[in-house]
Design brief:
Chains A, B: Keywords: Cytoplasm, DNA-binding, NAD, Repressor, Transcription, Transcription regulation. Chains A, B: InterPro entries: CoA-bd (IPR003781), NAD(P)-bd_dom_sf (IPR036291), Rex_bacilli-type (IPR058203), Rex_DNA-bd_C_dom (IPR009718), Tscrpt_rep_Rex (IPR022876), WH-like_DNA-bd_sf (IPR036388), WH_DNA-bd_sf (IPR036390). Chains A, B: Its main location: cytoplasm. Two copies of one chain form a homodimer. By secondary structure, the first copy, chain A, is α/β, with parallel strands linked by helices. Chain A is built from eight helices and nine strands. In chain A, helix 2 crosses helix 3. Chain A starts with 7 loop residues before the first helix and ends in a 7-residue tail after the last helix. The relative contact order of chain A is 0.09. The model of chain A has no long low-confidence stretch (mean pLDDT 93). The structure holds a DNA duplex (30 and 30 nucleotides).
Chain lengths: 212, 212
Amino acid sequence: MEQNKIPQATAKRLPLYYRFLNNLNQQGKKRVSSKELSEAVKVDSATIRRDFSYFGALGKKGYGYNVEYLLGFFRSTLDQHEVTEVALIGAGNLGTAFLKYSFMKNNNIRITKAFDADWEKVGTDIDGVPIYHVDQLFEKLEDTKVVILTVPATEADNIADKLVQAGVNGILNFTPARITVPSHVRVHHIDLAVELQSLVYFLKHYPLDTKE
Amino acid sequence: MEQNKIPQATAKRLPLYYRFLNNLNQQGKKRVSSKELSEAVKVDSATIRRDFSYFGALGKKGYGYNVEYLLGFFRSTLDQHEVTEVALIGAGNLGTAFLKYSFMKNNNIRITKAFDADWEKVGTDIDGVPIYHVDQLFEKLEDTKVVILTVPATEADNIADKLVQAGVNGILNFTPARITVPSHVRVHHIDLAVELQSLVYFLKHYPLDTKE
DNA sequence: ATTAATATGTGAAAAATGTCACGACATTTC
DNA sequence: GAAATGTCGTGACATTTTTCACATATTAAT
């Protein structure tokens, strides 16, 4: 639990920095300034410098940041040297897309198991990820602590309860339901309809030229 | 452009309120207090009252809010009386999931066209949504101003340019790329890998019991 | 060597967001 | 109809996040 002085807003940007540093490194770039990085990730350069400064002095004045060093630093900060296994609950359209979509190319998080309520799907696998029945959560989840929830909204609360009982403490919730969990469980909501609606709202009600 | 005094944080919550008010209304509930709503949407009740207050005095002391009235108010505020058409660019796994996933049940936003680079898909439709070729953006996009971007990351910037030229001013970007657009175009990023990584980071580095 | 250019790290200010707590008023109860 | 209860709307305050702007150090150029 070490450094919990890092602002949440900063913490949410770390994976983003990490990904772009990886890109830069693969391109063979040796150094990068906060200004350059800013243009790539679309975050103000002062914000980037401030974010980095929470971890100490990572750069060099007049030079910028050493890509390899910074990458290594974030790799360990984000625990990317070890693989984190997550489970996917609900192998419907969206869930299946996540299993097929290898959006995990640049990081060490892997979806290693999936669960579904449909016995037709149970026993099969999608892109190598085995599908179990949701009733098998307790036996099969083992020590997976983080799950991606892509079940129908009506099932969300019910399944969430079971997940919590099975020891899960992190849920990435893609259902429109706002699930109820004990306070030791962290839920991040990604609400596709809300995102789209709020984008439309901003377009209609906010002057253009203003940024998110 | 009327009321741009509403804080962005508030604006982002409006669609959420709207959805839950819809639920309550369908359940036949006539009144709701900020406390009840708070439990449903998991937003502090004081925050809810403050949010609502930006629009004037919508409630009644000692009573709460009239569900039907509030719903009507938000319906017009969110322009839900008219249908907003959006296009989907990239009918791959994720894009197809969005087309099939009717996450638009409770609102008036419709995906009416899709575009893909694969000629095999062009001419077919997914759940009634016709698929055109990305080269046909100019002819077929017509006056669609908002798009959901689910193309491969490598194509993101290239396609974004074309979209902007075709008159799009709102992009919901699901690619890991941070696209570059003129300042009159609004982009909201939903970065699945980043969301998952930051959830994992929070779990490892922040004391439990703390909320997002 | 000297100068010019570059770019960090941060104190301080500003802006944005969230929360507390209470006066005022409406509703409900007795 | 009086008292008790419930709940809004908001001023004041607290917290979080962003941004400015510059002293300081490093590099690059001449």
